Amino acid sequence: MDITSLYSVGSADMAKTAANTAISQERSSETNSSNFGSVLNTAMSNINTTNGYLSDAEDEEVKWSLGETNNTHDLTIALGKASTALQYTVAVRDKLLDAYKELMQIQI
User: Is pTM beyond 0.90 here?
Assistant: First the structure.
């Protein structure tokens, strides 16, 4: 391993590296806030989708109960979608709560 190039490193190089590090840390904090925003938007979108599936399932149940439709296939599909989406949403919520509890237990 050749380390001869390290002999020419001076204080000006160190200052330049420190400035670049500070700039990259500022950019990473901006990226982290935008990452949180994108995760939050995705979570809200998934919750809205789940609510839509639950609403569709209720609509199909009402139609079938009132005798407006005899097609149990659509009812079964709507109930399956709603059930799967709700299970997924609850699982994500549980994981987020577990992560929050773990963060709260960290000793500083």
Answer: no
